Amino acid sequence: MTSQIDHLVSIVTTDLVAITRGRPVPSRSLEKSAATGVGWVPANLSLTPFGGIVSENPWGSSGDLRLLPNTSARYATDLTGSPTPFDVVMGDLVELDGSPWGGCTRSLLKDAVDDLKRETGLSVIATFEQEFRLFDCVLPEAHPFSVSALRAADPFPAKLFAALEQAGASPEMVLAEYGENQFEITNGPTDALSAADRAVVIREVTREMARNLGWRASFSPKSAPDAVGNGVHIHFSFVDGGGKPVTYDPARPGGLSANAGAFCAGVLRHLPAITVLTASSVPSFYRLKPHNWSSSYTWLAQQDREASLRICPIVSIGGRDPSRQFNIEYRVADATSNPYLALAAILRAGLEGLKAGLFDPPLFSGDPETLAEGEREKLGLQRLPQTLEDAVQALKADDTVTGWFAPALVETFVGVKSHEIERSRNMTPEDICSLYGKLY
Ligand code: GLU
Ligand code: MG
Q1: Kind of pairing, strands 300-302 and 309-311?
Q2: Amino acid 1: pLDDT
Q3: Of the candidates 306, 311, 310, which has an alpha carbon nearest to the alpha carbon of residue 290?
Q4: 394 C-alpha to center of ligand 2: Å?
Q5: pTM to 2 decimal places
Q6: Does 2.60.120.430 match the CATH number of domain 8-101?
Q7: SS3 assignment, position 102
Q8: Nearest to 36 by CA among 108, 88, 89, 97
């Protein structure tokens, strides 16, 4: 990418409310900054999506950190329509002596990836599929998935694709979705850390491009309580130390290898507790309802979009190798959750399943809502938390899950989420959706 001026590069971190924040340095001095990073403040982790720092927080007004750029995770494009290039480099928060800081979500994901590899030999391949809605633009009414819905937004989808490609986010498709003015961006599978980095870049570039047209792109899970939801679907699969895919075993139920089955069982066991880490806001729970193609039960299914873990289809056209395509989709996520924390929670939960040698969860096909409570229980179908408040309680009740993180991180997360719950308490669901629609 070329540019006339020495533009600013932002060294960024994504916080517990999924806002990407950072500090800029001139691009010419990025290499110099890479050694010691830029300053950061611990209490920033207690920032709410509304702007303020929660007063009850473990950090106070003292203390300092460094935000260290990973220059190999730099994403830049001059195609967003802004006067200077979009240029971000992913940072890791460390103490002043360079030792790890327990509040850095990107480092938490790295640690989860490393532990999974060390304890099982498995590496994760992942991708985040993200839906969003355009506002403040006059687009003619159009049919879902239609050519006219895509063309009506022209040149936005094509330019977005080009910008993401130039930035290195490997887009696969920008498509018109089911909802009004709703679109989706998919990108190619990669290692877990790059997948989460790309999720951040995709959100930021999409919003910036929309802004430059006088539009607004919102990834918030619900633009209105009864609107079509914006999901974030996290796809994952595994390779062994030699890079060989090891998720698929055609001889086993659903095609899940024994390791993949144990991993899924761990995720479902801890799903009520990790829900708040992957669907983290009040409106998240307007989306997680039955018959919304989102997910609402601890449920593994083959190719069913109501399940929380969906075994994705494999295509055999042209004799394609199924083992390389086979992957599982976690559907309980949205963009009010931090992608690093969300994926770290999935990996940690899956690792618990592997360590405990859990058997595959039952594959269920049908509508859990039509079953009696007892029948659902037998099939392991447990309703997910139905409000942010319940989801926070479910997190606090699972000592295994809270044990994965530094106590101060859990305390901060619960503090920020409690603030969001209080702020929303006397608001209507419509007003809550409209507030979060503008924040995300
Ligand atoms: N919009 C749905 C959601 O809220 C997903 C639809 C789809 O499967 O693409 O997750
Ligand atoms: Mg979709």
Answers
A1: parallel
A2: 57
A3: 306
A4: 28
A5: 0.97
A6: no
A7: coil
A8: 97
Beta bridge partners of 124: 238
Ligand nearest to the CA of 179: 1
| Residue 408 burial by Cβ neighbours in a 10 Å radius (0-12, 13-18, 19+) | middle
DSSP, res 425: T
Q: How do residues 15-46 score in pLDDT, each as one tens digit?
A: 999 999 999 999 999 999 999 999 999 999 99
Location of each CATH 3.30.590.10 domain in the chain: 108-439
According to DSSP, residue 42 is labeled G
Mean pLDDT of 324-334: 97
Closest CA to 421 of 394, 383, 391: 391
Binding pocket residue ranges, ligand 1, CB within 6 Å: 131, 228-229, 231, 287, 293-294, 305, 331
86: helix, coil or strand?
Answer: strand
Q: Give the distance (Å) from ligand 1 centre to CA of residue 331.
A: 8
Residue whose C-alpha is closest to residue 223's, from 182, 192, 171: 182
| pLDDT tier at 2, thresholds 50, 70, 90 | low
Distance CA(57)–CA(410), nearest Å, equals 11
Distance CA 223, CA 230 (A): 8
pLDDT more than 70, % of the chain:
99
The span from the CA of 41 to the CA of 208, in Å, is 26
Closest ligand to C-alpha of residue 295 is 1
pLDDT number for residue 195: 98
* Residues in CB range of 364: below 8 A, 6 or more apart: 299, 300, 301, 307, 379, 381
pLDDT digits (tens, 9 = 90+) for 36-91: 999 999 999 999 999 999 988 899 888 999 999 999 999 999 999 999 999 999 99
Q: From CA 329, how far away is CA 368, in angstroms rounded?
A: 19
What is the topology classification, in CATH, of domain 108-439? Creatine Kinase; Chain A, domain 2 (3.30.590)
Please give the angle made by the CA atoms of 61, 67 and 72, to the nearest 5 degrees: 165
User: Per residue in 166-225, pLDDT tens?
Assistant: 999 999 999 999 999 999 999 999 999 999 999 999 999 999 999 999 999 999 999 999
Mean pLDDT over the full length of the chain: 96
Please name the residue whose Cα sits nearest to atom 6 of ligand 1: 293
Distance 333 CA to ligand 2 centre (A): 12
